[in-house]
Amino acid sequence: MAGRFAPRSAPRAAVPHQAAATPVPAPLTRAWTPPGPLDLRLVLGPLRRGPADPTFRMSADGSVRRASRTPAGPGTLHVVARAGRIEAAAWGPGAAWLLDQLPTLLGASDEPEAFTPRHRLLAVTHHRRPGLRLLRTGLVLESLIPSVLEQKVTTDEAYRAWRLLVRTYGEPAPGPQEYGLYVMPDARTWSLIPSWEWHRAGVDSKRSATILRTVRVARRMEEAAAMELTEAMARLQAIPGIGPWTAAETLQRANGAADAVTVGDFHLPGIVGHALAGNRNADDEEMLALLTPYEGQRHRATRLIMLSDNTPSRRAPRMQPGNIARL
């Protein structure tokens, strides 16, 4: 493709006024035309772990910046949609890998046409959200570790833990410093985090032990990105502490798994039950029964339900965050 991986000039990084400005190496660039409508916010939004995620930034103009630890090394990707075309720039050792994977990341291998809505709510939402495609990062650990951090705690607690650990043990991402991005730690660095630092981040021993077991077999975990859903679920759940919920949340992002249902979630069964059957008290069994017509596309169905704004109002008090660091 013309212009693919072509160097271009880049703005200088923002640095403290007392330091000399350091030129930022020119990024590699790529342009790609998606096969249909594509909404960057909808597609890449699931990768953001809270509004202050140090690995992810979404700008008011709809552009997205994210930092990843690729098989080739750290990399920063800046993606923007213009006139039906995607323009991307990337920095760092992982730049070429990120640009090569760009279409896959943005859902080129997804098959939204395989989805046939059988409920009016889903039909209307599917029509109103033509830019929804299921992303595929091809990277397991970067979704698995934050998913483990989200086990059995509030999202705010999990986001805080991710933010603290990545900023403390990760590294500044390649590219313009004004982006303020960090690349998450590599497997060895995760394994060397001392127990008191997990505690300071509010991560209990069960979750930290699960992450430590995971990073010891990082290569085996990353292999799951190329597996079919059933095999990949089994690979991840071979690690004690990783169950169906964590495996599904990971593979939805790493593999673009259109049928990976988040079973064991506190809220999702009631949301699906309310949307499809008017039953906000539905459990996992009823949720799976309601999603039966969408076998092969059940994750897409739940994404559409969450985007429909037809979710039940909160009745129970909001779960109060704990504070492990004070114990």
Secondary-structure-derived class: alpha+beta
End-to-end Cα distance: 57 Å
Helix segment tally: 15
Gyration radius, in Å: 20 Å
Q: What series of H and E elements makes up the topology?
A: EHEEEEHHHHHEEHHHHHHHHH
Going across the biggest sheet, name each strand in turn: 1-5-4-3-2
**Relative helix content:** 25-40%
Unreliable sequence segments? 1-20
Strand content: 5-15%
Shape: globular
Could you give a short account of the major beta sheet?
5 strands, antiparallel
The average pLDDT value, as a whole number, equals: 91
Counting DSSP E segments of at least 2 residues, the number of strands comes to 7
Question: What would the keywords be for this entry?
Answer:
disordered N terminus; 38% helix; 327 residues; two-stranded antiparallel sheet; single chain; alpha+beta; 5-stranded antiparallel sheet; 15 helices
Describe this structure in words.
It contains 15 helices and 7 strands. By secondary structure, the protein is an alpha+beta fold. A 5-stranded antiparallel sheet has the order 1-5-4-3-2. Strand 4 and strand 5 form a beta hairpin. Helix 11 crosses helix 12. The radius of gyration is 20 Å and the shape is globular. The termini are far apart.
